[in-house]
């Protein structure tokens, strides 16, 4: 075998691998979307692998009769509150980690990394008891506060590495030219770190959007989308909803996530790179 | 800079107070719920938890899921990341496809795989029309627990390998080209470079990925409820049931504490056995 055929074979193999990968990820999504719009007759027709008649009826039922629309709204509200609270608390902490040297810094940083490993399930159950006393049970604020506890360690670590990426000299130069430290932060550091912070915000959003255990335990009437869908369709054996409702539900849950990945794909990889240094 | 300043502490204080309140307090409360009865120390709740019909099954299944899923994900992610770290046409498309599942929740992933494998699902219709089987293959239902287990593993690998992939790929991109080029100059082949340079330098990334994935595997919940219901009991789902259906916060706390305990032990083992050598050297 000469080098040219070897090179060609390698190239073909590469493309085969990429193609298989893309297919492996995309095909399940494609089938779900297709079946989410299938009529019941086509779905139960064993000869129709690819349905030919379509309806939005099941998606509409889930959205408007079974309350998924409220679930989406609740999820967005909870995720937005989570971003706001965890950024108000996390940005100063991340900035302190990036810019100051102080006794106990390593211990604090290690504790925060440790908290990141804390399973949310341990938090959820005692929180129910606390929330009943505080009248936070079944409120969106309650879920957002719990999601903040989950997201805050991430936000501190991510923002601290983002701030560390802006050189100290720029800020010091601003101080020399008469800006206060807060002014230097607002005029110099913040604008430079805005894209990174936006990516961190989106990551926080996704964490909250997908979380199901705490949302299920802390709410009953005001459920986020995953918690609501879980209560509608849980259990393949004794699931309450017919199959085609499940696919419609999957479509509703997945589409926003895919749109999100499309817009953040550039940041997702780099963000993990800097976070885990 | 300002070495003896209070400012950094003041900046950190709100976040630390919040975390102590929302993680520290529930942790203490969980121990209290689990180990007391009427205000006095008691193992009554522990006994109630251990004698539950589903307890040992749940513990065994959870560990089994973690033991099967996490190593496959790590192996697959390393191979994919090594492959995707080269430059070729279509690489961006491949990476994009691989990170799509990052934002798909376990509930959605469960529903997606159900649509493929249900009796009237895509796979069964395809197999029957190709003449490979005459009757649909049942993947779901109490009689088919082994298949349900297999489907959950498959769905988890489909959904959550991407986070491992992203972490490993980010780790690969941080390895300096110079090391590899130097090794190449001295005649090291691909496998030698992989074994002696790339993999050792990937250790911190592998460690992070393993810790994150093991942690979430121990909490496996939504995807199991969707695909298997209670056919395959797992710790988190049993904790949920104790809390929501049986209104027993004490037993639910024990389930949660067991999950936390096992996670911490495994994380400590990863930290101990995957120590990054070159980081140790630079610290001296």
UniProtKB/TrEMBL annotation, chain A:
Its main location: membrane. The chain crosses the membrane at residues 12-37, 76-98, 110-132, 144-167, 188-209, 244-263. Pfam families: BPD_transp_1. InterPro entries: BP-dep_ABC_trans_perm, MetI-like, MetI-like_sf. Keywords: Cell membrane, Membrane, Transmembrane, Transmembrane helix, Transport. GO terms for cellular component: plasma membrane. It is found in: Cell membrane. PROSITE patterns: ABC_TM1. Residues 72-264 form the ABC transmembrane type-1 domain. It is a multi-pass membrane protein. GO terms for biological process: transmembrane transport. Gene3D superfamilies: MetI-like. Belongs to the binding-protein-dependent transport system permease family. This is Sugar ABC transporter permease. It comes from Thermococcus siculi.
TrEMBL record, chain B:
GO terms for cellular component: plasma membrane. It comes from the Archaea. Its main location: membrane. It is found in: Cell membrane; Membrane. SUPFAM superfamilies: MetI-like (SSF161098). CDD domains: TM_PBP2 (cd06261). Residues 59-270 form the ABC transmembrane type-1 domain. The chain crosses the membrane at residues 7-28, 63-83, 95-116, 149-172, 210-230, 250-271. GO terms for biological process: transmembrane transport. The keyword rRNA-binding does not apply. This is ABC transporter permease. It comes from Thermococcus siculi.
